[in-house]
Specification:
Number of strands: 14
InterPro entries: Aha1, AHSA1-like_N, ASHA1/2-like_C, START-like_dom_sf
Oligomer: single chain
GO molecular function: ATPase activator activity; protein-folding chaperone binding
Radius of gyration: 25 Å
Family: Belongs to the AHA1 family.
CATH architecture of the largest domain: 2-Layer Sandwich
Largest sheet: 7 strands, mixed
Pfam families: Aha1_N, AHSA1
CATH class of the largest domain: Alpha Beta
Number of helices: 5
Protein name: Activator of Hsp90 ATPase AHSA1-like N-terminal domain-containing protein
CATH superfamily of the largest domain: START domain
Amino acid sequence: MAKWGEGDPRWIVEERPDATNVNNWHWTEKNAGPWSKDRLKELLNNLKIAQNGVDCKVTEVEKVDGEASANNRKGKLIFFYEWDIKLKWEGHLAGSKDVVKGEVHIPNLSEENDVSEVDMTVTIKGSGEEAQRLKAFMHNVGRDEIRKQLKEYVRSLKEEFSKGLILPKKGETTVKPDSISTITSGFNKKINMEPVISTQNKQIGCKLDTKTIELSETFQCRADEFYNAMTKIEMVTAFTQGHVKMEAEKGGKFALFGGNVTGEFKELVPGKKIVQYWRYKQWPEQHFSEVTFTIEEKDDHTLVKLKQDLVPASEVEHTSENWRRYYFDSIKRAFGFGAFL
């Protein structure tokens, strides 16, 4: 096999017309935060919602807090966004001079939920029959119109903002549309990583029988690329296909797979070693295992050895299977670490 720097096409920069990111292999990221805030304000501010003698309008985008990014890996676009939005609105009934004001709160516009399922809370200032009618109108009709604008934001993020992330290959001046594969972070996919519950483990006062798991896996990537896949929140989100909380530093906490896997970083040596306190949600309360990833870069691949101590004996088989299925195999699929180009 080719050694790094000796013919591997992923690292020969002259194969690219601009001498960067061979075949779009490397992970590249573009911050979509500022653009997204402007786009959301443009779509939502002064949005008019009228029907059957009821006239309402969004008068102000009071808050847009969060983040968004567009990422390219091996010719695939991966998007991450999470926003907390507050809108002010006002409206009146036909023939009435009274103006009712209120707010709409969108607490979590993200890949975790389809836009059609995004939660919205409608509130009003004041009371009375007219106010309640307008609130009901915004709850039933207004929310649908707002969701249409949010859907347009997601479309423009994926189609307009991401232009330029996929680079042309050698001899090409533009990127062919059929050469682009767009994927999301997978928030909408529900992965079941629940362990089998052992009633024996739940018994108070019983000594827990534990064992050690040792696994090894090869990845066609650099050592620091595997390290990044395990410690950069956007990359962890991509391969776990779920919402991630992570502080990649000594003592930093993490929560993956809908909170089914939680833990803390004990040691981090970039490109070489990761040590974690790690547990399943349904393990005996407060019981943590210790996981050590040893990362070793070879001539033509990276070897990763995993050692997990203090695994409940009844969970060894399932935990081993899940490491391969939800970590190793998923990392290879998400980032192309399974084979050379």
